[in-house]
What we know:
This protein is globular. Strands 1, 2, 3, 4, 5 and 6 form a six-stranded parallel sheet that branches. The chain is α/β, with parallel strands linked by helices.
Amino acid sequence: MKRKTDSPDVATTSASADDCDLSSGAEFEVFLNFRGPDTRLSFADCLYHSLVRAGIRVFRDFEEIRTGEVIGDKLLQAIESSKIYVPIFSRDYASCTWCLRELAHMVECSSKENGKVILPIFYYVNPDDVKLKTRLYLDDLKQHEKKFGCDDVRQWKNALTEVARINGWGLKDKGYDCGFEICFLLFFLGN
Length: 191
């Protein structure tokens, strides 16, 4: 997702387990997690607009975070108040610490509260890339470790490998046309 800053000064996602249980009713049905430069003007945009047209309340940072709001707090609240998480793993996803923080918080919340679902999309990457069986994400994680320390990176690695084990949608050779995948996702959300 596009971030106003990606520095350690911004609030991190080490929320308590009780924070995940605060949402009795979901404010958002879907929380989109993606790296902006990779997919914002292509697949993520297509998916967002299709879900909104179908009447699904979707959190996407560009529409929901206003100038002057504390980014970290707003993102954590949106994750906690969403029912379905859709991380869109792209080639440079792991270079964005906010994407990784959000993903770790999604995993934490989904493990603490029944009814929360993670539906991963592998956009020009393979599940093995996200499971850290290739170098694609490992180099970025090594750089983050120098800046943020081992504990944060270990949490991000665990979240990546856990979510990559979920059967998701692969869009590697399908290009920008996301019609089938969106129809399938809409069908899933409707049930």
